């Protein structure tokens, strides 16, 4: 069985390492950057310089690879996944953001492809925990997901670490978030609809609605209140509101000293240069609220871990995202899934295996149940 990994960036490098070390799979790496291809080779991986967005190369990958694992920036991922599906790939496991993952469903059925979407931390692990929490209630009123990739301390630029694509980070701040409130589908603005929350035992955070629910809006269709929030340290949203008012999140190019560049691209460049590369903290808090028998119940799951606690070189957010991606690839390699789109919550029955693997790495999931009569 040939496993191919498309994209050897921050997350892809972790995915490749874990596929080899944790699952005994030897991935073939494809990347459009010569520097990253050489880095993969230095780490003992087979690697080739390929632009997978080219349909001809997508056809080659689909023909040669049993499973194509995709770890690309959001602006390229949808095109590559669709090309792989159209080329008849047996299985595609995507950790990248694509605007509408369910758009792959019918083409994947037609071509007999198993497409695993949102195979990361959030969305991904968050989806599995959401359906697990909701499944413990007789009637669910609300499911809320809080997720944050932060610096370990609330200091430094923006309180962040460069643990994933900075371009995707800014995209998350400008993309409308799909949510369900009081039974109605809503589009929320990450900055203007942000709020402040206090989470049990964790403290106070800025909470920005972000577009991570995606397939959960369908699989938890009966839940009237469903929102995902990205967590940041207090003051982060005020800074973003100022940056947006100044036009720093705009894509429209401006000319300065004879050169044209968009403020957003300049901001991405500056953050790439200035943000620290390590020393992060990941919080994932999933809460479901509703009825259980004669009681009102709240079911919650929490992960709160810092890079220094794990003793790893890679930021925790990168490591956990790559870990879920590699685990999802392994499930596909074992024959799990069906033709069409496989949402991450469909892997929830296998969640105990992922939990055990994370715990061996020092990442522990804490569950809590509260009942009020």
From TrEMBL:
GO terms for biological process: potassium ion transport. The keyword Oxidoreductase applies. It comes from the Archaea. Pfam families: Sacchrp_dh_C (PF16653), TrkA_N (PF02254). Residues 3-75 form the RCK N-terminal domain. One of its GO terms (molecular function) is oxidoreductase activity. Keywords: Oxidoreductase. InterPro entries: AASS (IPR051168), NAD(P)-bd_dom_sf (IPR036291), RCK_N (IPR003148), Sacchrp_dh-like_C (IPR032095). Residues 120-362 form the Saccharopine dehydrogenase-like C-terminal domain. Signal peptide: none annotated. Gene3D superfamilies: Dihydrodipicolinate Reductase, domain 2 (3.30.360.10), NAD(P)-binding Rossmann-like Domain (3.40.50.720). This is Saccharopine dehydrogenase. It comes from Pyrodictium occultum.
């Amino acid at each position: 069985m040939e496993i191919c990994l498309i994209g050897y960036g921050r997350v892809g490098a972790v995915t490749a390492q874990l596929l080899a070390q944790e699952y005994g799979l030897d991935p073939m790496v494809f990347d459009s950057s010569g520097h990253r291809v050489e880095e993969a080779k230095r780490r003992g991986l087979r690697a080739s310089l390929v632009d997978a967005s080219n349909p001809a190369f997508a056809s080659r990958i689909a023909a040669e690879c049993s499973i194509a694992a995709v770890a690309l920036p959001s602006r390229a991922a949808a095109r590559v996944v669709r090309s792989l599906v159209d080329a008849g790939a047996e299985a595609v496991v995507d950790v990248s953001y694509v605007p509408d993952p369910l758009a792959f469903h019918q083409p994947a059925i037609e071509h007999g492809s198993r497409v695993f979407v949102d195979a990361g931390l959030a969305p991904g692990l968050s989806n599995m925990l959401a359906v697990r929490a909701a499944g413990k209630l007789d009637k669910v009123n609300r499911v809320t997901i809080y997720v944050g990739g932060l610096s370990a301390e609330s200091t430094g630029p923006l309180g962040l670490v460069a643990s994933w694509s900075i371009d995707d980070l800014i995209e998350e701040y400008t993309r409308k978030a799909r949510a369900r409130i009081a039974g109605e589908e809503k589009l929320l603005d990450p900055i203007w609809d942000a709020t402040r929350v206090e989470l049990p035992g964790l403290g106070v955070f800025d909470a920005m609605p972000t577009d991570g629910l995606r397939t959960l809006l369908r699989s938890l269709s009966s839940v009237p209140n469903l929102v995902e929030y990205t967590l940041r340290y207090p003051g982060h949203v005020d800074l973003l509101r100022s940056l947006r008012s100044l036009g720093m999140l705009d894509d429209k190019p401006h000319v300065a000293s004879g050169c044209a560049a968009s403020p957003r691209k300049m901001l991405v460049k500056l953050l790439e240069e200035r943000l620290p590369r390590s020393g992060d903290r990941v919080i994932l808090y999933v809460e479901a609220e509703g009825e259980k028998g004669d009681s009102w119940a709240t079911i919650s799951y929490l992960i709160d871990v810092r890079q220094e606690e794990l003793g790893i070189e890679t930021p925790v957010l990168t490591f956990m995202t790559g870990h879920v991606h590699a685990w999802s690839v392994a499930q596909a390699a074992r024959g799990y899934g069906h033709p069409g789109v496989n949402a991450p919550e469909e892997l929830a029955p296998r969640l105990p295996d992922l939990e055990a693997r994370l715990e061996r790495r020092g990442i522990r999931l804490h569950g809590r149940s509260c009942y009020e009569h």
